[in-house]
């Protein structure tokens, strides 16, 4: 199944020229551009059209930023209204009607116990800026420096966020096991894994010889996204809330990718019923434009003026687009829709796994779905448990998907998890098309990677 649309010669030349100049002029750190050699020029909803005239179903959605897909009418209307009004586009942290509308709409979506006593800090425009602000907040409020974070976490690319993500060596960060079933760190899986992870955390905090100083806070993702689409068990999240509350440790929920309906609830913490002390938000809250905030309990609001700032924290277009997005998701029940449709897609993918031994696990919550690819032929008697990850196969599946007009992302500790993050506006028919193309891509990649001796 090839991508739709034909590429006129002139369009192909322009497309290839842009890609060639990008490779020559941009840094070696570029990521998505390497795996997805396309040049988007138009987009609407789920669909992207490239400069070469080909069309793709976008299940990357700006790494989860596009809750309503590309160029949704309510977002465009909100942006045009600000542009046509003559309002300033950049105002630092001054009060404006646009900001007031955004904060009002955002607070209406929060867990009620937090919303009733919440404060909000506008940060720099990226999620990592909001993480840095949250870490600064709890350290200021508690007077402590240490941090509890989890293996497999991803919180951003700035210094503090990298420390929390395990990307730097900071002795102030204590790493805790994040429970999961398929590759359980304790080798047991299921509820027992969550229970052991909780006991480990309690023992670490209560043992005076553990070497872990009293922390300023605990930061966690209700679903680890870059870590491989690992939903936190609800019982475990409740235990983390109880453990931190009993010890006076602020709990930070990183909802940068899980928020705004992505997991089947407006905020992923709602599945477990917990109320964190701090919530970090970005991506979808800006309606496709850069915006990041920290929302926290008023008791933590001990910052002096100027303790945390950011030049681009007053983006009026992003606040208008974000308020429109939040309202649309809330008014049209898109979170609930994501939960139902995501469960159906996971079920169909689990059925696909029965026919493909290279699919080790299918998991997710709402429209945040992961398919872990493995090498079922590899034998390692020294490592009991699931087969080893297959990053080369996952990369082949991603490329096969792109050839079939489907854009997907890879994640997980070994980049062996194919991730789906479609917009919440995904229709049943579009979901079927996505699954069909993914199934075809997995089948083709698996056949190409099969050892010669096992091919028919």
UniProtKB/TrEMBL annotation:
<comment type="pathway">
    <text>Amine and polyamine biosynthesis; ectoine biosynthesis; L-ectoine from L-aspartate 4-semialdehyde: step 1/3.</text>
</comment>
<dbReference type="InterPro" id="IPR004637">
    <property type="entry name" value="Dat"/>
</dbReference>
<comment type="similarity">
    <text>Belongs to the class-III pyridoxal-phosphate-dependent aminotransferase family.</text>
</comment>
<dbReference type="GO" id="GO:0030170">
    <property type="term" value="F:pyridoxal phosphate binding"/>
</dbReference>
<dbReference type="GO" id="GO:0045303">
    <property type="term" value="F:diaminobutyrate-2-oxoglutarate transaminase activity"/>
</dbReference>
<dbReference type="InterPro" id="IPR015421">
    <property type="entry name" value="PyrdxlP-dep_Trfase_major"/>
</dbReference>
<keyword id="KW-0032">Aminotransferase</keyword>
<dbReference type="InterPro" id="IPR015422">
    <property type="entry name" value="PyrdxlP-dep_Trfase_small"/>
</dbReference>
<dbReference type="InterPro" id="IPR005814">
    <property type="entry name" value="Aminotrans_3"/>
</dbReference>
<protein>
    <recommendedName>
        <fullName>Diaminobutyrate--2-oxoglutarate transaminase</fullName>
        <ecNumber>2.6.1.76</ecNumber>
    </recommendedName>
</protein>
<dbReference type="Pfam" id="PF00202">
    <property type="entry name" value="Aminotran_3"/>
</dbReference>
<dbReference type="InterPro" id="IPR015424">
    <property type="entry name" value="PyrdxlP-dep_Trfase"/>
</dbReference>
<keyword id="KW-0808">Transferase</keyword>
<dbReference type="InterPro" id="IPR049704">
    <property type="entry name" value="Aminotrans_3_PPA_site"/>
</dbReference>
<keyword id="KW-0663">Pyridoxal phosphate</keyword>
């Amino acid at each position: 199944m090839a991508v739709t649309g034909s590429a006129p010669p002139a369009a192909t030349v322009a497309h290839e020229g842009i890609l060639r100049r990008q490779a020559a002029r941009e840094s070696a750190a570029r990521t998505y551009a390497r795996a997805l050699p396309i040049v988007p020029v138009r987009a609407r909803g789920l669909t992207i059209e490239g400069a070469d005239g080909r069309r793709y179903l976008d299940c990357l959605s700006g790494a989860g930023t596009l809750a309503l897909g590309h160029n949704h009418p309510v977002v465009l209307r909100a942006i045009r209204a600000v542009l046509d009004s003559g309002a300033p586009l950049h105002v630092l942290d001054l009060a404006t009607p646009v900001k007031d509308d955004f904060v009002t709409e955002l607070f209406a979506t929060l867990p009620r116990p937090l919303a009733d006593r919440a404060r909000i800090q506008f940060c720099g425009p990226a999620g990592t800026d909001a993480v840095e602000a949250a870490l600064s907040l709890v350290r200021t409020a508690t007077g402590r420096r240490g941090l509890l974070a989890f293996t497999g976490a991803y919180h951003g690319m700035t210094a503090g966020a990298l420390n929390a993500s395990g990307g730097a060596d900071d002795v102030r960060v204590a790493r805790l096991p994040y429970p999961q079933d398929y590759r359980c760190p304790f080798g047991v899986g299921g509820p027992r894994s969550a229970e052991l992870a909780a006991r480990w955390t309690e023992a670490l905090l209560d043992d005076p010889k553990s070497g872990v100083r009293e922390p300023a806070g605990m930061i966690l993702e209700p679903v680890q996204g870059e870590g491989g689409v690992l939903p936190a068990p609800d019982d475990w999240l409740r235990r983390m809330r109880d453990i931190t509350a009993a010890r006076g440790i602020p709990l930070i929920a990183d909802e940068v990718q899980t928020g705004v309906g992505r997991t089947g609830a407006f905020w992923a913490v709602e599945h477990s019923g917990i109320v964190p002390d701090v919530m970090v938000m970005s991506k979808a809250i800006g309606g496709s434009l850069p915006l990041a905030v920290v929302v926290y309990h008023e008791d933590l609001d001990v910052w002096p003026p100027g303790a945390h700032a950011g030049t681009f924290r007053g983006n009026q277009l992003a606040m208008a687009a974000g308020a429109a997005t939040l309202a649309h998701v809330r008014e049209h029940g898109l979170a609930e829709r994501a939960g139902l449709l995501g469960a159906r897609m996971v079920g169909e993918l689990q059925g696909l796994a029965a026919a493909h031994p290279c699919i080790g696990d299918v998991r997710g919550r709402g429209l945040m779905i992961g398919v872990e690819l493995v090498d079922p032929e590899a034998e390692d008697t020294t490592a009991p448990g699931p087969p080893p990850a297959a990053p080369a196969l996952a990369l082949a599946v991603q490329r096969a998907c792109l050839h079939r007009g489907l854009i997907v992302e890879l994640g997980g500790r070994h980049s062996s998890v194919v991730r789906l993050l479609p917009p919440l506006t995904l229709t049943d028919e579009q979901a079927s098309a996505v699954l069909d193309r993914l199934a075809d891509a997995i089948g083709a990649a698996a056949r190409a990677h099969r050892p010669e001796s096992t091919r028919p």
